[in-house]
Give the backbone structure.
Amino acid sequence: MPGPQVVLLRHGETEWSRAGRHTGTTDIHLTADGEDQARAAGRFLAGREFALVLCSPLARARRTAELAGRPDATPEPRLAEWDYGPVEGRTSHDVSQEIGRDWIIFRDGVRVAPLGAPPGARPGETLDEVAARARGVVERIEPVLDDGGDVLLVAHGHLLRVLAAVWAELDPASGARLELGTATISLLGHEHGLRTIEGWNLPTA
């Protein structure tokens, strides 16, 4: 019999995710296509029981959970997306052009010189700070898994990529290797006493 799983669901499409703009603390809503994606994820998960369902408190994740048939998901602040600070709303291409070299968030972070930022802009989180939040979520769900229950986490692209790396006891920067589309499903589990990634970036439609 398979052991308990952690099921990860990234929120559906937003206008910013479609354009490749970094969306951290900006509380943007799903597009019509994003809502359809969330419903498809619900059909994918139909009939599956979860002992615990947690979601990011941001609207795009809460709406995804609702449309996926999990309206009673418990908000978990540590599942909020990476606080991008000065790169909020910018694309990777824009940031690379501004700093004059190729920019990779998992390698370079968001506090990048000589990146300009509006006066009073938030400094943003470091990768280590995001990983610490992800570890906190893992610690919260471990007792549920130990009791044999499955867990569903509805959150954001970069946060879930970091969480998967943390789960597998890899360097958080390994999240750079884990592409994650909107409203896709990923599965975390165990084999031979090791935490594993059992499925990744699985389409639901």
In short: The two ends are 27 Å apart (CA to CA).
